[in-house]
Amino acid sequence: MACEVDTDLSKAGDSTSFNPPLPKKPKINVEKTDLDAMVLPGLCPAGDRMLRYGKLSDPEYVRQRQVFDDQFEDSEGFDVEWDSFDYKFFAMKFEWAGEGDLDYTRSNLELRTLLIDAAMKDHDDDYDTKLEFVDYVSANVMPCKGYMF
What we know:
alpha+beta
């Protein structure tokens, strides 16, 4: 038994009834000052610097990553020579984060204060001490599902 194929495409219907039209791209007026602030692909803003994303095929990235890993592990992240690296690694300086990058409901200063207070309270509770905040030196940020301090 032969199978008949209907080749009359006029019966197929309007294709837009199955696939809605794509939305038009909005026109964006970019001023020259906005262009200066745009980040180039492959670069990550880090304060006043731009760090590159590394690849394991890049020997310089591998070298810097090993130095970073050693410094981070030896000092538990407290003594890293951040300015000696050209690549973005798993952690970064807290100060490099733009407003809203870490928490969209608090400023970076509010978040930093909250985290310092929480860390001091935890330490006081664990060791029966009464730490007093003197001065902020530095902090690191590592992406995770929450805050680690």
